User: What shape does this take?
Amino acid sequence: MRPAARSFCDRWRAGRWKNGRLLSWSRSFAATFRRGCASGGRSGWRRSAPTGGGARRELQVLPDVLAVGSDADSVRICLTLQSAQRVADALGCLLPTPRISDEIHRQAALKVPPDPLTHERESIATMLRHSRILDARIRGAAAGALVAGGKKDVVITNRLLERPGRVAIYGWHHPDGRPVQPLSIVHTDRYVDYSHGIRLVRRAMTVDGRAADLAEVLQDPVLWPLVSGEGPLKVIRY
Assistant: This one.
């Protein structure tokens, strides 16, 4: 995003958020469930490494990517990761891992096919246009339905240790589950374009019905496969 446009857009987004202008569905969370294996357990994720006994976890995630406005007139916002992290911190959330991104798509009630745009990818006009395309794609969906596929996720990953000052992007899944965007840290941490979405995941979660903190589970030597595909995370926030 061009510096002037990025500055304007981040000021506008921050102002709308601070003034309570998140959509009603951006204030609610949808549950995702999954049973993961532990220490050679019998059940697990499609790509999980073994971790120990069939633990069941429940996460609460935004039903769609972050947006501002009103329920009648809104726009999905593409934030710099610094702004995204501030919002996540204020709401008691983290950004997803690639594994969580995959699971959100797998469980989504509505899987939206990617809509790539190639002209002025970093402009506010393109961000608005893409949000309107997604509005048309999900028109008629039940309120609060879990929607996925329309945006790439800004994610957390240990690969950020390889190149500090980068943003990690993943997802934009086809309806069959294949991600258009493999995990990438090619862009600097100030880069934003229309395809990026902010999907918040509540830190408060459950493992086998017991309260847990997603930040702790991500770093746990036994439970990490419930939420990560790359071992315990050393990077859980930007």
User: Anything to note?
Assistant: The two ends are 19 Å apart (CA to CA).
